[in-house]
Amino acid sequence: MIMSSKVEAFVLHCGEMGSRWGFNRTIGQMYGLLTISEHALTANELSELLNISRGNVSMGIKELHSWRLIQVQHKPGDRKEYYRPAGSIWEMANRIFEERRKREIDPTLSLLRDNLLNDPANDEEVYAQDKMREIHDLLENITFFASELQSMNPDKLKTLFKLGSGVGKVLDMKDKFLKSGS
Question: What are the residue boundaries of the HTH marR-type domain, all occurrences included (predicted)?
């Protein structure tokens, strides 16, 4: 099996994006290849196509399992394990966001909450706590909004995206209306 230049370009790009998503380049490449492969792939095929060691593939599979991004598939009469993405592209995006929230946002919110429970000892800490409260509130709002988006089915979400800046215009009109009524 040989990758076409278009597939290879996509897979390499997924490797670069992997580090931004929270995992390394090799795992990004593995997931990119699995995502656009029509058929499930074995660990040996991943190793061969990506020119990486079987050990790296094994570690990558474990990491992708921990993110719940891949699933194992078995074929009758074949003892090999085949890997494919676990769900749709929308489900993949949700899982990546959820894992990043658990690994990055939740610990930050926890630290901020702990710091905000303590009374400030001086003016410097009062200022610092005010900024921490702003960060906390922003992260809480983003997390709430993201969970609302995640609960929408893909069709509703597409409709919301199509509304785009129109939502902002409606809110501007509401503000003008409320000001003129006072």
Answer: 23-80
